[in-house]
Amino acid sequence: MRVHAIEAFDDNYIWAIETNNNDKVIIVDPGEAKPVQQWLEQKNKSIETILVTHHHYDHTGGIAELIKQSPCPVIGPENPEIKTLTRTVTEGDELTVGGIQWQVLTTPGHTLDHISFYTPGFLFCGDTLFSGGCGRMFEGTPEQFTQSLLKLRKLPGETRVFCAHEYTQANVNFALKVEPENAVLQSYAEKVRMLREQEQITLPSTLQLELAINPFLRFDQKSVIAAANKHAESVKNTPEDVFYTIRQWKDNA
Ligand SMILES: [Zn+2]
């Protein structure tokens, strides 16, 4: 399964997933129509289905125009705010798109409606998990967000993580404040710096790498707990407390 990144806005990625049908791709989170239309034209492909992770405009803003030009199913979470959906899905639903069987995971925290799409080897997690970071907690609670991250953490390590933003460099710079001694993080930060210097994409990441470097997946590691306690100047021991402390720390960094 080949996946292509289509750049949108300043730092969004819209993912184009090749299907069993050579002429068709699945498009994930088209916040803008134009870059998708240009890409399709260039590659001589059309859209089989649009998948949506959550209601934010930078993930949904291009849908209306794309389906006006060429109608196709639009599948996403139950949320009346996303008016273009033709089908809503939630965890446990059977979903076959483009000849690929998908598992839907509810991953609230960034927003309440957030879902992620998983098929062995590939995770499309929108703004829930980023490389080196996670989405801002706009609508959910620390408990919800932590549960969502725990769910993603259980997927196989080789799973490639296709998140929706190129935030990796800022994220790893922050992660180094939390875990300055983390050797894997140090070398990843250097790799990311070189890639970004050449304006190259840093994604997809892998879950295995994220488990080693992402403080938002490492809320039960001693070094991360210690850093959260030091920052908050109080004892934070539960995953939710550690997660929330680091999330606030990053928000105010
Ligand atoms: Zn968002």
UniProtKB/TrEMBL annotation:
Subunit architecture: Monomer.
Gene: gloB
Cofactor note: Binds 2 Zn(2+) ions per subunit.
Protein name, per record: Hydroxyacylglutathione hydrolase
Pfam family, one: Lactamase_B
CDD domains from the UniProt entry: hydroxyacylglutathione_hydrolase_MBL-fold
Family: Belongs to the metallo-beta-lactamase superfamily. Glyoxalase II family.
Annotated positions binding Zn(2+) 2: D58, H59, D127, H165
InterPro entries per record: Clx_II_MBL, Glyoxalase_II_hydrolase, HAGH_C, Hydroxyacylglutathione_Hdrlase, Metallo-B-lactamas, RibonucZ/Hydroxyglut_hydro
Biological role: Thiolesterase that catalyzes the hydrolysis of S-D-lactoyl-glutathione to form glutathione and D-lactic acid.
Metallo-beta-lactamase domain location: 11-165
Bilayer-crossing regions: none
